Amino acid sequence: MVIVKSIDIEDFRGVRRLKEPLELGKFNILLGRNCIGKSSILQALFLVNLPCDEVQLPLYTMSSKSYLKALSGKWNYLIYGYSGDAHLTFKLQTKGLRKAVVTKNFSTQGEFSSASEETLLKLGKGELNLKIFLSASTESVNCKIDEENLTQEKLRELAIMLNPEGQLLGIYIPNDTNFYKLLHEYAYKNMDGITKRGLHVKVFQEFLRETISDKFTEVFPRENELYARKELKDTVLYIRLNDLGEGVKRGVLTFFAIEYLNPAIILWDDIEVAAHPSLLDATIKWLTESERQVVLSTHSVDVLESFVRVEPRDAKVIMLKKDKEDIITYKSLTLDEVEDLLDKGIDPRKIVEGTVP
């Protein structure tokens, strides 16, 4: 399902302004030169996830705004030029959403609300305009829906309504070594829940089986680490997850986090890092079949080739260009258009400057 139909960005991170709002589909790949603003766009999208609420998000152990502050180093680093205000505008798809009864669930993660019966949000005709303002001077975030100020409780209700079955609305996966350490810690602490859902076995049976030569059957906790069970012809070995290689390790940990937390939106930066083309194929296939909204960034032609092979529905490659005034324009290519370029031996990465008006 498409949750975010479009986003407009002004003075956030490395993006001074978008010439026009960025239209998103179900499956999106951001393509562009270094320092074009791909990571900034993903981080802006992450702020749709309870940005005005200091409640701790699962996995991140803090709010989305606090996590981005920690990732950047200082609050004002989130603002273009490190001063003034940033403005984000989201057009959210709300068609088909229903109000539900508030329930309190007591899990090993603590108490949280899973649904909302009474909400003051105006659902309108299937769309909501969410505006987020970040101030460098006051280190504050303010949110509005259709010009009405949002309280923290209203924003919480919106996140629940947009993804009532998940533990958080959106997950942001940066290309950051510390983040994968965080994923490892989270998976280790939640292996009982991960195992109860069968994810410790599915990660190999349904996701990674065709991407590695070894026969691994399951992941389990042991001595404060995660191990994988490896079957040989005449014996069984137990291998540390950290020793399986960076690509497999990242694949396992990301699979656990996404399938366990069940976010509606996946934001993945530099998805190609440490991944063989077969792993990219498996990853894009899995993400496509999950029915979540996906926004990826990449520099790799391998990702584009996997994109063409897997053929995700409602998919596009968004080619970004930045002018001398730091204003970003873009052009979207369909799956067929990307395939046509590759068939002609044309690398889409090298023609971005010539194809974006």
UniProtKB/TrEMBL annotation:
What is one Pfam family matched by this protein?
A: DUF2813
- Gene3D superfamilies (alphabetical): P-loop containing nucleotide triphosphate hydrolases (3.40.50.300)
Out of the domains of life, which is the source? Archaea
Q: Which InterPro entries match?
A: Bact_Antivir_Def_Nuclease (IPR051396), DUF2813 (IPR022602), P-loop_NTPase (IPR027417)
Name of this protein: DUF2813 domain-containing protein
Q: Can you name the source organism?
A: Thermofilum adornatum
